[in-house]
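Lab notebook: predicted structure, single chain.

Context: the supervisor wants predicted structures on file for every construct in the current expression panel, including those that have not yet been purified. This is the next one on the list. No modifications to the sequence; it matches the entry in the shared construct table.
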Amino acid sequence: MTEYRVIRAGESRSFPQEHVFTESASAAGVNVVIIGRYAGSALPSPDDSKGASFVAIELENECLAVHSGLNQSAENARHVGFARFRLGTADPTSLVELVHLPWTNPDAVQSAKEAFEQSGLQVALCADFPGRIINRLLRPYLNAALRRIDEKLASPEDMDKTLRMGLGYPEGPYEMLQRTGLEDHFEVTQKLYEALGQEAYAPARAAMIANQRRSKESLASPSDG
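Prediction complete. Output recorded below exactly as produced.
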């Protein structure tokens, strides 16, 4: 059994509620898992993590190296990043994308992988790139579907039906985005577009409108009371 302690640093997208993984943490655990929006700013000192096999940092869409640095030291070789995949407002899935750098100690990766898996989570290993595996593959697909709808190639309903029936997808792209939030899709694609500069990640028009509407409502809300 791999023991670890959890440090909370703001709201966590990976663990918004208690989970077997967080409930199984021990205050005396040598290994360190930092969860929350500010996880990268809550790294323990070398003395506080002495003896740890790994220090796991929750990521959003940024690279692990933003927090760990590019210094190939023994300390940084213990750092791994992670994110439990979650679409917008939907519940997190059981998939954890575990991020490593070229010089990350393989023992650190294996130990962190075991810690997540012993709580019933599924782990996929990936190199340190913005958006990791799923967002790098999924977001251009969703953008393409939104743009074809904009071009009147098909209605949202027919687009979803075609992909469900023709390719066997359990859910069409438009209904997926309606369920999980076009605003979230805008946030993720905008960050990936800024990081990668590739047109496929540029937010589609519908996502931009949804984000503008949210901003307008946010500005109006203080005067509601």
